[in-house]
Amino acid sequence: MAKSGIEWTETTWNPTTGCDKTSPGCDNCYALTMAARLRSMGQPKYQNDGSPRTSGPGFALTLHERTLDIPYGWKVPKLVFVNSMSDLFHPDVPLDFIRRVFEVMSETPRHTYQILTKRSKRLSLLAEDLVWPPNVWMGVSVENMRYAFRLDHLRTVGASVRFLSAEPLLGPLPNLDLSGIHWLIAGGESGPGYRPMQKAWVRDLRDQCRFEGVPFFFKQWGGRTPKAGGRELDGAFHDEMPDVDAAR
């Protein structure tokens, strides 16, 4: 378990690690940079460089069987980001392994699990083959309008909470169809090569959420470091979350 610095969760659980780039939102992936650092430190989960689709050192898609049992040992309820260092619906993750992850989540209902993917088509294709317990939230990343189709895939999924992560937000997302969406997170990119986010893009998302009654969470402006630009939008923090009890 790792206590997370991600503002919208409490801890992370990585039954898989590693990934590869699939869209522009991946260009400055924080997990890729972190994996290289952890590999150099000798962390055993980040020593696999063997995949032909590896994006960088230590970031080959790897299944971690021993990690599956970790949530059973957490006695206090937690908000858990699943696969902060990977994508559970990556094509190299077998359906059987995904089912085992879902079994663990189902058998630990005291925790609330947040899954986020860019592989929305595979998510939609596999959704009917999975049992969706009420403590599992499912989200997709949409960095610009070209990838808004991921929301259509997400709407086919029977999760109790379906959410959109507009991070890194790389362009405006006007007139989104937020039907069936229960939460929206927005944030700017961070790191040495970060691409600046415009205030108008964020304001528009906030206003769309207000109009549609969707909770809005503004994570960060971004910059050379995640905290460089702060978290306030027009002088206020926006930390709205879905109603967990209602979702269950």
Provide an overview of this structure:
- This protein has 248 residues and is α/β, with parallel strands linked by helices.
- The chain is built from six helices and ten strands.
- The strands form two sheets. An eight-stranded mixed β-sheet has the order 1-2-5-6-7-8-9-10. A two-stranded antiparallel ribbon has the order 3-4.
- Helix 5 links the parallel strand 9 and strand 10.
Order of helices and strands: EEEHEEHEHEHEEHEH
The count of helical stretches stands at: 6
Secondary-structure content class: alpha/beta
> How large a portion of the residues is in β-strands, by DSSP E?
15-25%
Tell me the overall shape.
Answer: globular
The biggest beta sheet is recorded as: 8 strands, mixed
Number of strands: 10
Amount of helix: 10-25%
Q: Averaged pLDDT, please?
A: 93
Spatial strand arrangement across the major sheet: 1-2-5-6-7-8-9-10
The separation of the N and C termini measures 24 Å
Low-confidence stretches: none
Radius of gyration: 17 Å
Which helices and strands, and how do they pair?
Layout: E1 2-3, E2 11-13, E3 16-17, H1 30-40, E4 62-63, E5 79-82, H2 95-106, E6 112-117, H3 120-126, E7 136-141, H4 149-154, E8 161-166, E9 183-187, H5 199-212, E10 216-220, H6 244-247
Parallel strand pairs: 2-5, 5-6, 6-7, 7-8, 8-9, 9-10
Antiparallel strand pairs: 1-2, 3-4
